[in-house]
Amino acid sequence: MALVVLCVGMLMIILDSTVVNVALPAIQDDLGFSQSSLAWVINAYLIAFGGLLLLVGRLGDLVGRRRIFLAGLVVFTLASLLCGAAQSQVMLVVARLIQGVGGAMTSAVILGMIVTMFPSARDRAKAIGVFSFVASAGGSIGLLAGGVITDLVSWHWIFLINVPIGIATAALALRVVPDQRGLGLAGGADAFGATLITGALMLGVYTIVKVTDYGWASLHTLGLGGVALALLAGFVVRQQRAAHPLVPLRIFRSRNVSGANAVQLLMVAGLFGMFFLGTLYLQRVLGMDAIEIGLAFLPLSLAIGTLSLGFSERLNMRFGPRATLVPALVSIVAALALFARVPVDGSYFADVLPSMLLLGIGAGLAFPSLMTLAMSDATPEDSGLASGLVNTSQQVGGALGLSVLATLSATRTESLLSAGDSTSAALTGGYHLAFAIAAGLVAVGLVIAVTVLRAVAPAREPAEAEAETAIAMSEAA
């Protein structure tokens, strides 16, 4: 029951991050956003969410993860109410910023709680499979939900529906989620370090999401990016010298923790860009509406659910997470390579569905394996920090991938339009370039997985280990 409650909380956060995309045209018409200012409905959430994940993950270790989870639910639910009631641009953007704060608090500690609640290797593998399904498939489910709610009711209800869900989740969490005591603020209350890392991540995410407006070589991007890197360097120096560091750097000594987060950042960068640009291809080139696009992504969600819930735990237990991850990444690279060949006059079943299924297979196996590897060497005291790090790599990877791929796709499309290509052909050409680069990013992640990640022996249950020990002792006698 505790796992169900935690996953419902995560699903609410994931759905909200994608359901808004489908509703953006309705929000723009209703509140009078310009095309450039409309991006802040998304960016305000991303900046707060991505900037605070690492900090609140560590705070969960210090003050108690359930406290941070519940506080995040309260903030997220109240902010959702404000978003649903918004009648002006400023009110909606500010409410989205607050919603990002609540989303970060809620999601950053969930994986850490799951790891500590399920000490048995097999149960933990199953629980991580369920969590991975929610985290990876929730986005495509949000596309369908957003289209249905926006078309049949109103965009306001994509936010208001979070209110009863948030209240029910918080009430159940108080009853069924165990209250794990934290280390205490004396165990890592580094206020200056917290300021540095939060500033670095927020400024970094802001710089990334504004690249589409200013370009990669602009003074705005290079200047703010340099400041973000300087703040990050200052944070690393601070953590080396602080008596009670906010983020103990020992966690990065693990090849699996560092490598798994690097692989996840690259994989999510490719996937997020594909989801966004794939949606545009279905809409602008194939002419699908919001509900049709949601249905088009449904096979992807079903494939992720089947693999992450039905097979990932068995494969991780039988072969180990690294051995399961490598073919999963190969499947994702193949899917993106196929997407890079979609024609202007393509059909969904012949040209899109095969890639969707390959992506679902790859993501359904890759996410549980990566999360298992990223949490494999984390101590119980650092599990909240490791959980926050996993979510941070996801969000930064998503923002980076979306910005890079969308910018390059738009530039390629403009070039083809100038050369005299039709609108559909130019759009498709831009998407081809983006999908090819996305495949390249995941391929780099595959190389890291093969060369950096350490193979973890397939986990055994205590009873199995005791039986093998008894057999060995008997043979020795």
CATH architecture of the largest domain: Up-down Bundle
CATH superfamily membership of the largest domain: MFS general substrate transporter like domains
> Mind summarizing the main beta sheet?
none
Number of domains: 2
**CATH-defined fold name of the largest domain:** Growth Hormone, Chain: A
Number of strands: 0
What is the H-and-E element order?
HHHHHHHHHHHHHHHHHHHHH
Counted by DSSP, the helix tally is: 21
Transmembrane segments: 38-56, 68-87, 93-115, 127-149, 155-177, 189-209, 215-237, 258-281, 293-311, 323-344, 356-376, 388-410, 430-453
Subcellular location: Cell membrane
Main location: membrane
Membrane topology: Multi-pass membrane protein
Task: Tell me about this structure.
With 477 residues, the chain is mostly helical. The protein folds into 2 domains: 387 residues, Growth Hormone, Chain: A; 56 residues, no CATH class. The protein is 82% helix and 0% strand. The chain has 21 helices and no strands. The C terminus is likely disordered. It is found in: Cell membrane. GO terms for molecular function: transmembrane transporter activity. One of its GO terms (cellular component) is plasma membrane. It comes from Capillimicrobium parvum.
